[in-house]
Specification:
The chain has 103 residues and is mostly helical. It has one domain. Helices cover 59% and strands 4% of the residues. The chain is built from 4 helices and 2 strands, in the order ββαααα. The longest helix is centred in the middle third of the chain and has 34 residues. The radius of gyration is 22 Å and the shape is elongated.
């Protein structure tokens, strides 16, 4: 394996090597780009930020839904009022796709 002028890892034939194994980020804590920061910690920090953002969005949507239910004094009426807006459907779909488990 060699490194081409663009800095890409290449095979002996000059083809760029592509690694599609995301588990490398979680299991290998080496500093591959030699910047002094373990690559695994960078991924872990980004995953943590994403988890906090999703948790905040879920909390906000649930608080909005509960407020509608309290205002309407009924869960079913609160549900209908909350989902009368297209944007609430879109928010629910967005959050569902973010927290669904991978295959």
């Amino acid at each position: 394996m060699i490194v081409n002028p663009a800095g890409k890892l290449c095979s002996d034939r000059g083809r760029v090597l592509v690694f599609n194994d995301p588990s490398v980020w979680y299991t290998e804590w080496a500093d591959r780009n030699e910047d002094g920061v373990s690559d695994g910690y960078v991924q872990l920090a980004l995953e943590g930020v994403l988890a906090v953002m999703i948790a905040f969005a879920v909390y906000y949507e649930l608080a909005e839904f509960v407020a509608e239910c309290i205002e309407q004094k009924s869960i079913s009426h609160g549900f209908m009022v909350h989902f009368s807006s297209f944007w609430n459907y879109l928010d629910a779909l967005n959050l569902t796709l973010q927290v669904r488990p991978d295959k």
